[in-house]
Each structure stands twice: as structure tokens, then as C-alpha cells.
Amino acid sequence: MKKIILFASGNGTNVQQIVDYFSANPQVEIPMLFCNNPKAYVLQRAENLHIPSMVFNKNDFFSTDIVFDKLKEINPDLIVLAGFLWLVPEKIITAFSKKIINIHPALLPKYGGKGMYGHHVHEAVVANHEPFSGITIHYVNQYYDSGDIIFQATCSISTTDNADNVAEKIHLLEKEHFPKVIDNLLFGNR
Q1: Between 20 and 30 A from 130 (CA), which of 95, 107, 141, 170?
Q2: Phi, psi dihedral angles at 187 (to 5 degrees)
Q3: Residues carrying an active site annotation
Q4: Which of 74, 182, 79 is nearest to 140 (CA)?
Q5: DSSP state string for 122-171
Q6: Res 189: pLDDT
Q7: How far is CA 57 from CA 19, 65, 101, in A?
Q8: Percent with pLDDT over 70 in the chain
Q9: Residue 188: its pLDDT value, please?
Q10: pLDDT band at residue 190, thresholds of 50, 70 and 90?
């Protein structure tokens, strides 16, 4: 049995896609969702999907071992940041080395770093007249968006695209690739 822990801060569309993808696989369990935003819609999604959730604040995450201890208790095979916006404490990164991944809505190293998430990324891509954008799935380290790249997928950007159009294209790439990359990390090429 492979255990995936999900971390999210917002709506939870990637969480939904990951859960849906693995729902028919008896070899995969998603025992918990961790969320740093008590008002995030992802908490409702988790409830609807019968996945227990743990809500925590900055003090819990950065100054105590509450989250760390729960992760150690669960001992996941993979921790997936699916729209989670905080840096992960070094203690967690060290304890789960090469077991924490993130998805970023751009082709890193471009458009990464603090403050570069969601619509901010798409607006920057459009403002700079980029011909391409895409997604990057990478391992998490102690810096924003700078861990080793696992996978990238691209989409073309036309001169008439706005940030909303780019967001739609990125969501399609996330839906198509994120669960498959997770599957491959857990089980290798099957």
C-alpha cells in the first residue's frame, strides 16, 4: 500500500484530480489532507471525498512539531503539494528527502519564486509575451520552486491570450499530467 499525503491552500482542483485518478487503485491510500487555510474550499472537497483533513497555522507549521509529528506517524511514500503556498520547513524536507513534490504553473526556472503563484504567474507570462508556458513538477527543497525538476509539459501562448486563457491551458496540463507523474513516482513505469 502506497500512502500519499496532500497539502493545499485553496480551491483544491488538483487534489480532486489526484483523488479521482487513484480512487480505483487499491494499492494507493490518501490518508490525510493538510491545509493552512481554514476557509479553503479544498477542505469541503476533502470532506466530500471522505479524506480526513488537518488545518494548521504558521505557528503550528514553523514553530512546533504538530505537522511534523503527524507526518512521521503516517509515514507517507509521497507528500504532494497541490496548490500549497508556504515554504516547507527544513526539518520536514530532511525527514522526507526526495518524497515531497510540488507542481508549479510555469516552466521553471522562469516565473518561480516567492509571490509567483496562480494568476500572478500567468499575468507575468502574458506581459512578457512568452510564446510558451507550461507546468513543472519538481522535488521540494528549502527554496521556492528550485528543487530538481521531475517533469515539464508545455503549451503555446498566442498573442491574443490573456491570463485567464493561459490559466485554462495550464489547468488542462495539470489534469493530464500531475496524477500520472505521481503514479510513476510511486510505482515506476508500469
Answers
A1: 141
A2: -120, -5
A3: 104
A4: 79
A5: HHHHHHTT-SEEEEEEEE--SSTT-SPEEEEEEEE--TT--HHHHHHHHH
A6: 63
A7: 24, 12, 21
A8: 99
A9: 87
A10: low
φ, ψ at 175 (rounded to 5°): -60, -40
CA distances from 69 to 43, 61, 151 (A): 21, 11, 30
Its pTM surpasses 0.90: yes
Q: What is the DSSP letter of 78?
A: E
SS (H, E, C) 21-68: HHCCCCCEEEEEEEECCCCCCHHHHHHHCCCCEEECCHHHHHCCCHHH
CA 187 vs. chain centroid, Å, equals 19
Q: CA 143, 12, 101, 34 torsion: positive or negative?
A: positive
Question: 124 — phi, psi (to 5°)?
Answer: -65, -40
Distance CA 138, CA 142 (A): 13
Scan for cell 485567464, then name that residue. 164
88-118, pLDDT tens digit by residue? 999 999 999 999 999 999 999 999 998 899 8
Q: Which residues of 3-30 are buried (b: 16+ CB within 10 A; e: fewer)?
A: bbbbbbbbebbbbbbbbebbeeeeebbb
